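PROTOCOL LOG
Step 1. Enter all chains and additional molecules of the complex.
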Amino acid sequence: MSAATLRDRPQRADSRLPRVLDCAARAFRRNGYHGASIREIVRSVGMLPGSLYCHFASKEDLFVAVYEEGVRRLRAAVERALGHETDPWRRVQAACVAHLETLLDGGDYAQLMVRVQPRDVPQAARRLVAARDGYERLFGELIDALPLGAAVSRSDVRLMLLGALNWAPTWYRPGKRSPGDIARAFVEIMRTEPHGAPR
Amino acid sequence: MSAATLRDRPQRADSRLPRVLDCAARAFRRNGYHGASIREIVRSVGMLPGSLYCHFASKEDLFVAVYEEGVRRLRAAVERALGHETDPWRRVQAACVAHLETLLDGGDYAQLMVRVQPRDVPQAARRLVAARDGYERLFGELIDALPLGAAVSRSDVRLMLLGALNWAPTWYRPGKRSPGDIARAFVEIMRTEPHGAPR
DNA sequence: CCCTAAGACAAACACTTGTTTGCTTTGCGA
DNA sequence: TCGCAAAGCAAACAAGTGTTTGTCTTAGGG
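Step 2. Run joint prediction.
Step 3. Record the structure below.
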């Protein structure tokens, strides 16, 4: 819960911290915050419960570290995908593709943002929300740049798009349609009018 | 886990079962499946842990009962809202409004469907998924009836719409825009083209 | 009116939870 | 090469978990 954790001190070359984070990400992704236990995590690393507390002061602290790493990876993927795309709609599309690809087959870290509710981690809730908000602001800017009609609310477009994407882990099954294709289809539906009939 | 539970036997007039369900719904909604404890639930009812097992054989059974009640309420709300609406788009709109209203201020039951992942309740996962799928099929039919261009995938429209709505509990704050308004805005965005620029 | 079964109590069960403590090993900079 | 601190082990801690058992109470149908 304290601001600066035991982490991000000088660490040894053979530190098992990375594996701890990986295993924690997997456990939290699979079972949620309450469903994942310290013992389960450290067992899959191959160490004992007490050893974890060399790296983190509490389970909550561990979770925060993994969660923020997830957000970092999402942000990195989106910024990389944005590259030097200039057309507003193509920028939104690139961001959505990167977001969904990272969410769906980018490992366990990224899904934490949509899997675990901040309120499950009381002491750290504000920090988690702050991290997520910071990331989503990125999409806000992209959507603000869209040439939309005056009638449509940009914040609604953002909420719809992110909602639809973030819900995808619920129904997505690997091996079928690729995350990229899905994201492109969603953006396309937003971009064009799907109907043919008047009111 | 057995098919027929202790529930739905003839119950007394003064049975506390309804309150048990209410409190369980609230606890599960707030803290998720793993985060909610039997003791916490029965304490808010005002009885002892053992007493719960007069009504349910296990925590999972209790959860299934509450979850399915939630789905029932959602379905009832949607079917009521559908009424004798005939225009395809108006039907979709009515369903979405009812869905979101029930989800956001329809009590604790309905939110379970979007709050708890079936995989958190291993023994009952298939049943939960079946209940949810049955409900969502309703939306599939409504969207199939839409006069959409041949280019747009109806299943994508369904996934987008339901995803956007189901994600709403994440960001919705009571007292601001009403759930009904939000749902209508979302449907409108789907129905019309939000952009003004070419590709 | 009585007697059966629903419903609740009280107390324990076996186990898991996150965490702490004291000690030992070991990599690495000085 | 030495010494320090990072890292891990081993074992326990107190509290909380879902659940079971046996007993008692009491509402409601025959």
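Step 4. Note key features.
The mean pLDDT of chain B is 93.
The two ends of chain B are 54 Å apart (CA to CA).
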